[in-house]
Amino acid sequence: MRLLATIAVKHLLARKRQSLVSLLGIVLGVAFFLTISSLMQGSEKDFIRRLIDNMPHIIVTDTYRNPRLQPVERLYNNKGAIEVRSVKPVTETRGIRGYERVVDYLRTLPGVEASPMLTGQGVLSFAGKNIAVSLDGMIPEDIQDVVTIQDYMISGSISDLIANPNGIVLGEELLRTFSLERGDNITVTAPTGQVRTAKILGVFRTGRSDFDLNHGFVSLKSMQVLMNRPHRANTIIVKLPDPYRAREIAADLESRFSYKSISWQEASEDIMSTLAIRNIIMYSVVSSVLIVAAFGIYNVISTVVMEKHRDIAILKSMGFLARDIQRIFVIQGLVLGIVGSLLGLPLGSALMYALMQIEFKPPGSTQPIVMPLDWGWMQFAIASGFALSAALIAAFLPARKGSRVQPVDILRGGV
Amino acid sequence: MSEIVIKTEHLTRKLSGEVPVTLVEDAALEISRGEFVVITGPSGSGKSSLLYLLGLLDTPTSGTLWMNGENVSAYNEDKLAELRLSQLGFVFQFHFLLPEFSALENVMLPMQRLGRMSDEQIRTRAVSLLTDLGLEQQLHKLPQQLSGGQSQRVAIARALANDPLLILADEPTGNLDSASSKNVENILKELAHQYHRAVAVVTHETRIATTADNVITIVDGKIQG
After folding, report:
1. Which residue among A145, A216, A355, B129 has its CA within the 20 to 30 Å range from the CA of A328?
2. Do A317 and B55 touch (CB under 8 A)?
3. Range of the domain at B147
4. Chain A contact set for B82 (CB, 8 A)
5. Could you state, in order of their start, the residue ranges of all structural domains in chain A?
6. Contact A306, A11 (CB under 8 A)
7. Are the C-beta atoms of residues B79 and B161 closer than 8 Å to each other?
8. Which residues of A are less than 8 Å from B58 in CB distance?
9. Residues A198 and A185 sit within 8 Å (Cβ to Cβ)
10. Cα separation of B38 and A137, whole Å?
């Protein structure tokens, strides 16, 4: 093999300019592949990070994915025809029964944070104005571990609900509508008819005007009284140390407790599929650079094969096998692919580093933005792997043609 | 009785096509160790075609070919290549040296491919062959830096690299001046008579034929006489 490699390299060195142009194609292809893929990967990760940060990783709801089996169905296990007439489901208070059990289980998992919530509708009234809002009843001590609302507080704190369980935390937009401020009282009316007066303990501003206008936070106990659903929660919010395990843990929760558990991936399926399509488009576009480079390799090796018909004939007459000849030209492709990758990867890394230094401030933004790049060994492996594969395929076709040269046909023809 | 290196019986090579062409027809011959054989005949008579058949570069349409007592007619391409590598040496009208390799490297190539010797032994043998042929000053020169006669002598050294039983030369002097031509002719004869190799040379030159141990004349693909 060393001999074949020597012949291959000598052929390439004999055509320095052509070989250099082919090599340059691979170098640039690998570098762009690496840079653009890390840019796309970075922006995707950044997008997902923002998505994950702003939403629970898993939401356990008080509904079931599939209707629960009736006792008679469980008894006969779907064998034979069963007709049950006049079934009257038990009237029960809606919510997750024994939610503490679910929360306790979740807290046994390493690094997992969980907080129960009771959400519902309510009407806030002040000075003749009524506004319907969505109310989240939660445990103030726990909620801060699972949602980021504390980060958006502009006055007061969620923790203030610990000292005053009858208080409420509202959005800045809503308070402006009512002309109220922190420390004032507001009337809360629940669909059950319960009416309470709550003191405004905190104000938040998320930047999403509908959320800031239509959302409020109260303590879980207070919400249970308002909704007349003692010892109930209808949602459990879960935060995981590794958000990418959400799907697996949600499935586990659902099999253990039967309640529908929605992972963030499931909740954002449309966005995730958009990202997948974006990745396919990106890899197709970037790969095309390497495919073009592969044509360069095909061209140089085809030329070498054409020019070397006489040498192929003489090598074969000496006793070299057809597969030796094929290997010589495949090695040439491999050499171009390997050297191209070895030069392209550092160039790509340098390009990525340069992009990471760029800072810009879009209109309306207070903080400068840097290009979100993400690089890992996987991208290096894909870039060089693709370059090598392209180079090998490009070399294989002319190599096969070269190996089929019949020495007699060439020797008869003279030079 | 001298050892027969190559023997053919009813060896025929036809080219199929719209108009079939017979290159060699019913050839029967024997070449022994130490024999210097000249294959001669008019242009297009099938001399080179016969040489390519003897050199296992072309496959006969029919007939049998023995090499060293072994019927090689039905050998596959790999086995034929192995025989060419270890038992045959070729010299062509044009030297056909690999242009990117020096004279020394060109001679080392067949030995490296055979792989029976260490790198050091291969180098020593290549240097010795080239020195024997008077090329000790040209070892590291590329083919384009050598004269026609020197290139042809490098080609002979390359043909001898793996110590072959049979050396086949196709118009080896056809492209050389008279002095170089005489030199190459003497080397080939010496290989047969002093080093006991079988040498078959295709040539137009009647002068070479007159000094041969055996002359095979071929006309229209048929061996005469």
Report:
1. B129
2. yes
3. 4-223
4. 319
5. 2-52+271-412, 58-79+93-266
6. no
7. no
8. 408
9. yes
10. 109
pLDDT tens, residue by residue, B24-83: 988 899 999 999 999 998 888 888 899 999 999 888 999 999 998 889 988 888 899 999
On whether the CB atoms of residues B221 and B49 are closer than 8 A, the answer is: yes
Residue B167, beta-bridge partner list: B89, B199
User: What is the predicted pLDDT for the residue at B1?
Assistant: 46
The answer to whether A238 and A55 are in contact (CB under 8 A) is no
**Nearest-angstrom CA–CA distance, B183 and A18:** 41
Q: How many CB pairs under 8 A join A and B?
A: 65
Q: Is B57 on the interface with A (CB under 8 A)?
A: yes
CB contact under 8 A, A314 and B96: yes
Contact (CB, 8 A) for A343 and A27: yes
Rounded distance between C-alpha atoms, residue A200 and residue A182, angstroms: 5
List CB contacts (< 8 A) between B15 and chain A.
none
> Nearest Cα to A278, choosing from A9, A85, A32, A44?
A44
Contact flag A319-B94 (C-beta cutoff 8 Å): no
Chain A: closest CA distance from residue B133 (Å): 20
Cβ <8 Å between A408 and B109 = no
Whether residue B126 has pLDDT greater than 90: yes
The pLDDT value recorded for residue A268 is 86
* Residue of B51, B54, B67, B96 to mutate, testing the A interface (most A Cβ within 10 Å of its Cβ): B96
Tally of domains in chain B: 1
What residues contact A188, with CB distance under 8 A and at least 6 apart? A122, A123, A124, A125, A135, A168, A195, A196, A197, A198, A216, A218, A226
Contacting residues of A for B158, CB less than 8 Å apart: 318
pLDDT tens-digit profile, chain A (415 residues): 788 999 989 888 888 888 888 888 889 888 988 888 888 888 888 888 877 877 889 999 988 877 667 677 777 776 767 777 777 766 767 888 888 999 999 999 998 999 999 999 999 999 889 999 999 999 998 888 888 888 889 999 999 999 898 899 999 999 999 999 999 999 999 999 999 999 999 999 988 888 899 999 999 999 999 998 888 899 999 999 888 899 999 999 998 988 999 999 888 888 888 888 988 888 888 778 778 878 877 887 888 888 888 888 889 988 999 999 999 989 988 998 899 999 999 999 999 889 888 888 777 666 777 888 888 888 889 888 988 888 888 888 888 888 888 888 887 765 4
- Asked if the C-beta of A318 comes within 8 angstroms of chain B's C-beta atoms, the answer is yes
Q: Is B175 on the interface with A (CB under 8 A)?
A: no
Nearest Cα to A161, choosing from A135, A198, A118?
A198
At residue A415, the pLDDT reads 45
Q: Two tokens at B38?
A: 């000249």
Higher local confidence (pLDDT), A220 or B148? A220
Asked whether the beta carbons of residue B170 and residue A10 sit closer than 8 angstroms, the reply is: no
How far is it, in rounded angstroms, from Cα B7 to Cα A325? Answer: 30
Maximum distance among all Cα pairs of chain A, rounded to whole angstroms: 108
Handedness of CA A211, A214, A219, A225 (dihedral sign): negative
Q: Which two tokens stand for residue A253?
A: 């929760």
Instruction: Tell me how many helices (H) and strands (E) chain B has.
Output: 7, 10
CATH number, residue B213? 3.40.50.300
* Euclidean distance between CA atoms B189 and B37, whole angstroms: 9
How far is residue A136's CA from residue A187's CA, in Å, rounded to a whole number?
A: 16
Number of neighbours of residue A285 by Cβ within 10 angstroms = 13
